[in-house]
Every structure is written in C-alpha cells, then in structure tokens.
Amino acid sequence: xxxxxxxxxxxxxxxxxxxxxxxxxxxxxxxxxxxxxxxxxxxxxxxxxxxxxxxxxxxxxxxxxxxxxxxxxxxxxxxxxxxxxxxxxxxxxxxxxxxxxxxxxxxxxxxxxxxxxxxxxxxxxxxxxxxxxxxxxxxxxxxxxxxxxxxxxxxxxxxxxxxxxxxxxxxxxxxxxxxxxxxxxxxxxxxxxxxxxxxxxxxxxxxxxxxxxxxxxx
Length: 218
Known about the structure:
77% helix, membrane, transmembrane helix, single chain, mainly alpha, 0% strand
C-alpha cells in the first residue's frame, strides 16, 4: 500500500505536527477547562469550538484526513520497522521502539475515544450540551479511567518524542548538543502535558459534572 519514499515519510512527519499536533494541544486546552474552570467553563469552550464556521469541513479536512494518513502510514512504519532494542540498548533506540508502540496504542485510543464521544453525538445518542455528563460517566468507570490514563500518556509521549524526531529530520536540530537539549525540552513537555491531561480527566469525576450546569438547564 505504501512505499517507504522520502515524500511519504516527510508528509507523515509534517502531519504529525500540523495539524495533528495542534489538534492534540487544542484538545488539551479544551479539556483542561474542566479542571481550571469547572463544568460551565468547559461547555463554553466546547460550544465555541462547535460554533466555528464550516466546523464539519474543518474537522474532516483539517483533522480526520491528516490524522488518518498519519495513523495508517504510522502503522505501516511500525509493522515494517526493524527494532533492535535487544541488541542495541541505546537511549534513542529505546525511544524509537517506544515511538512505534505508543503510536499503535494512540491509534486504538483515539478510535475508541472518538467512538465514545464525537460519534455518539453525531448519532444523537449524546447531546452536545451533555458531553460533560457523558465524560463524568466515563471517568468514574474504573476500567475506562485506567484505559484513558494509558491512552493519554501514550498519545502525549508519541507527540513529544515525535517532535524531537521532527526537528532532527527537518534539519532544525542538527548537532549532538542541540539534540540533547531538545530531548530535555520535549521530555519536559511530555511531563507537563500528561499532568494537565490527567488533571482534566480527574476533574470530570467531580460530582458537578454528574448533571448539567444551571446555565445550560435554563
């Protein structure tokens, strides 16, 4: 299906940052509203996003098609990659292996999360205004909570380590020192984003999310 061409690799790398990386950051900022502002603030952010002009077209062209290419080609790379961690236990070899593993986990998690949330809204099984209540039901389910934590950490690691690789492959961090500094920066980003995402997930466990806020009820 794919040829491991220069163009395919570059497109895969670029789409992992623009727009897929932007989508991950936007998702983080939206969900973090649940922690920093509560149920009403979270819904305000959700409504603002869904009131953007041509939002469905933006989602399809700007998110789902690039995400589908990045995911499918990423699975192809993971399947064909020759991982030699057992023979060469260097740090970057470990990161290469983890990038492939977290890519597969992230793909499964995003598909599952999409099915549980956005797809259910599209089918009419969950009202858009009730997405906070729906997330409360998910977050208070122990099995789902563990699955989401694993998926979140995998997705953020895949993004952060992928950014390190992106900067190398596009000739931005070319020397050992620059790459070493970049490692520290992106591992820091990984820690901060993971904490923010998990705080957002735990915020949905608050009883305030078990029912619609007054501003929506009215």
